[in-house]
Each structure stands twice: as structure tokens, then as C-alpha cells.
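Contributing: when you submit paired examples, paste them exactly as shown. First protein:
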Amino acid sequence: TGGTEALYTILKELGCHLPGIVVVQHMPPVFTQLYAERLNNDCAMEVKEAADGDEVRPGRVLIAPGGLHMTAVRRGGGLIVQCRQGEKVSGHCPSVDQLFFSVARLSGLTSLGILLTGMGSDGANGLLEMKKAGAHTVGQDQQTCVVYGMPAVAQKIGAVDRQLPLPDIARHICEWYAKVSGGKEK
């Protein structure tokens, strides 16, 4: 609940120099494509509804298609997404946990996991696995959430390195990336 506008707020503030971004938004089929098109029109980064085999590359945001789980896997020297049918996880398909668990399994990957406003607990356990694998993790703070559910669960189980208000998350992403890249664009 509130995730579409929260994500829009963040992506509008990001330039196209960042590494690829993968997103799960709890939306049904068709709506994810329309949402991705809206974001693509308003954001500097290319935004598209993911298709099986799409490459995760700099300047691109891939939105999980409604009704399919999206996971990240290595292919050659890079990453691609796999979009597959499956049972609901944490009550959802696509599931944030499915994506986060797949990222946590990618050894040697420098990653940032962010959990935004939403009902339930989807993403909390996956975010914890990402943190255990060395990722930096962020949860949206209670004051700026429409529903402080998913990030609250993540905070409670110790999955969150930093809790931030929504207006600060885009800047934090850029600062984190500058730090891990040594100030170099990749």
C-alpha cells in the first residue's frame, strides 16, 4: 500500500548513471506494464516491465511482471532476470522475498536492498538474507509509510541497516553507490 507512489518518488530523483535496478511491486498483470510505461516517461533511467532473460544493466529499471516471480541470475559476465510462474510466496506473486533471496545467493555481488511501505511481511526475510550476504539494506521509516508493515517486520527481525524517510532514499542510493564505486561510474 503506497508503494507505487513511493517508488515513483525515488526513481524520479535518480539519474541514469546508476547500475541496474530490479523491482517487485505488488500489482496484477497488465498493471505492471502500464506502471513501467508511466515511470519510463517520467524518469531519467529506462524503466520497463521485465521479460524473461532481460539484462540487468546500468541505467535500467526492471519491474517484475504481475503474476510472475522475478529472480536475478548470473549469465556470462552479467546478470539477467528470470520471470516464472509459481505459487504465491508471503501471499504474493510476484514476491519481494523471491527476488531478494535470489540476490542474496549471488556471491560477490555488491548490492543494496530497499523495502518500502506495504502491508504484510513480504520482503523482510529476503532482506535479512541479503544483509547476511553483505548487502546494504534500507527500510522506509514509519513516519513516511502509508502502511508501516513490510519495513516494520524487516526492522523487527534485524534486516535493516538504515531506516530512512522517503524523501531521503534517492540521495542515500546515490551516496551509497558513490561510496562502493569509488566515485566512478560503472
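Second protein:
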Amino acid sequence: RQPVLWEHLPHSEDEEQRASWQARQVWYAENGFDVGINLFVTRDEPDGSVNPARLRKVAEFVRSLCA
């Protein structure tokens, strides 16, 4: 079985957070994690809110991969 990761990103204009995310993306790619296959990424809406329906959909899909 292959590990599955789900990362939720805050909406941010902060350059340090963006750089951190870019570094994690490189690490993920180097370690066999591909978006939509075994790496899932969700983000806050531009106003900082979350979309519960979207998060629930991703959670259900990720859970189905781990069952």
C-alpha cells in the first residue's frame, strides 16, 4: 500500500508560507507523491473561509483510498 497525504493550505499572501509550500512540493515530488494520485491539496477560499462541501468530498475520496 502506498501512503496518501492530504494537505490543507491557508489562503495567504505571506511569501514565507509560499516558499515553504514550494519546498514541500519539491519534497513530495522527490518522494513519490503526485497530486491527485496520492497527494491531495485543498485551500482556503480567497476570503479565508473554507468550503465544507469541497473538504468533505476530498475527505471521502481520501478515505476510500485508505480503506
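If you have annotations for the second protein, write them as plain sentences, like these:
DSSP finds two helices and two strands in the chain.
Residues 44 and 50 are 5 Å apart (CA to CA).
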